[in-house]
Design brief:
five-stranded parallel beta sheet, 416 residues, alpha/beta, Rossmann fold, single chain, 2 domains, six-stranded mixed beta sheet
């Protein structure tokens, strides 16, 4: 029997449905959008899935009648398959301004679709759903950032050894993968990518060289957690730079890769301006690269890439689910001072996070966090954290902490 996990974003959807005419649930295919949408169905809510070819044909041929309803809410799944419905929905919600009329789901960014002429701006609330986080799997609430900013680390949590965390990262968060092992995980991920290339990619871009796209996906998986350099990527693949950029944009639109912008809110002249690139599921990355868990344990470079990609997705999910407004950045300057993640709160308080796979931490691991605190965070609350695979939170100076990765998931906060 399929296990139904409590998704952090359910509350956000339910809240948005009380205030906005249209709610758009977006995220990668197979991350759980349909399951979550169906959990919201009641007697006065109907569900239509545009993966059904007959329904899609009806939607494309008579969009006005397709979207008409006298229910509380109409759920339309995979809206990117029939973007012609968007103007029809706009017409309905402009005539009737009641909130909660439509819940749409999309496995592609509808604003990136070449055939989309309507964005529903001002009428729609977007909610991002990512693959399952370890917090959702373990039944925790997305509270880590609140604890981190307040430096209150006395909450209950369960310690996981480094090998257990590596296992979590290798598995990733696609729900169907959670029950699979070894080769079956890799096969699922590869079949998933093939389905994207053969079907979903056509919704967002005109791709003429599918062989080049396959090679690019492998390169981008290897590039995860690195600074994006399209010139180097285009040279390695012998593909024109504009083509590489457009292909990356298409993969972004399908929520397979994601860019993290640099933090540049300073007059410091040496701050870097390159974005970082991440795969949006660490398990998918491992399968694309044909990584072996036993080899990774003894390869520090690949282990750091794995852990940083894994932590990125955990942090991004907590940011998405939070009731507070957070922005996620990275920091790098021209003298190669780097901080893996900077999370800025709406009051301009900043949380700096470095990711280490080691179970031991030294004072030098805080050098860049400490420099940022002293030079670029003057007058602001700055908390610097090194996430590591150890088993206890430790203070390393004023607002500087070594925090176990396991503490990302407080114990027993949410029933599954």
């Amino acid at each position: 029997m399929k296990h139904l996990y409590s998704r952090w974003q359910r509350y956000k959807i339910e809240q948005a449905m009380t205030t906005r005419r249209v709610v758009l649930l977006i995220g990668a295919r197979q991350c759980g959008k349909t399951t979550l949408a169906k959990q919201l169905i009641t007697r006065d809510i109907a569900y239509l899935n545009l993966d059904d070819t007959t329904l899609r044909a009806a939607a494309e041929n008579d969009p006005q009648n397709f979207v008409k309803h006298n229910l509380k809410t109409l759920i339309i799944d995979e809206i990117q398959r029939a973007p012609s419905l968007l103007p029809a929905i706009k017409k309905v919600v402009d005539e009737e301004t009641r909130p909660g009329q439509y819940l749409l789901t999309g496995s592609a960014n509808i604003q990136a679709l070449p055939s989309t002429q309507e964005s529903l701006a001002g009428r729609v609330s977007k909610v991002r759903l990512r693959p399952l986080t370890q917090g959702e799997i373990k039944g925790s609430l997305p509270d880590f950032l609140t604890h981190a900013f307040s430096q209150s680390f006395n909450f209950p949590w369960t310690f996981y050894e480094k090998d257990a965390i590596i296992e979590m990262a290798f598995r990733g968060g696609f729900p169907e993968v959670l029950t699979l092992e070894g080769r079956n995980q890799k096969k699922w991920h590869r079949d998933y990518l093939e389905a994207l290339l053969e079907r979903d990619l056509q919704d967002v871009a005109k791709i003429h060289r599918y062989d080049a796209m396959r090679e690019l996906i492998k390169v981008l998986a290897a590039w995860s957690s690195k600074f994006l350099d399209t010139s180097s990527i285009s040279s390695s693949l012998s593909i024109h730079r504009p083509t590489v950029a457009s292909y990356i944009n298409a993969l972004e639109a399908l929520y397979i890769v994601e860019k993290v912008l640099p933090w540049t809110k300073t007059d410091y002249g040496r701050v870097g301006k390159q974005s970082k690139l991440f795969m949006t599921d660490s398990g998918l990355m491992c399968s694309i690269l044909s990584w072996n868990k036993d080899q990774i344990r003894f390869d520090s470079d690949r282990l750091e890439k794995l852990m940083e990609t894994f932590i990125f997705n955990e942090l991004a999910s907590q940011i998405d689910a939070s009731e507070k407004d957070y922005e996620l950045y990275h920091y790098r300057d021209r003298v190669k001072r780097e901080i893996d993640f900077l999370i800025e709160r709406e009051d301009q308080a900043i949380l700096g996070i470095e990711v280490k796979s080691s179970s031991s931490i030294q004072k030098k691991d805080f050098n860049h966090l400490e420099w940022f605190q002293e030079n670029l965070a003057k007058g602001k609350l700055f908390v610097g954290i090194v996430l590591y695979s150890g088993n206890r939170p430790l203070s390393f100076g004023q607002n500087l902490w070594a925090i176990p990765i396991s503490m990302l998931w407080p114990s027993g906060s949410l029933s599954t």
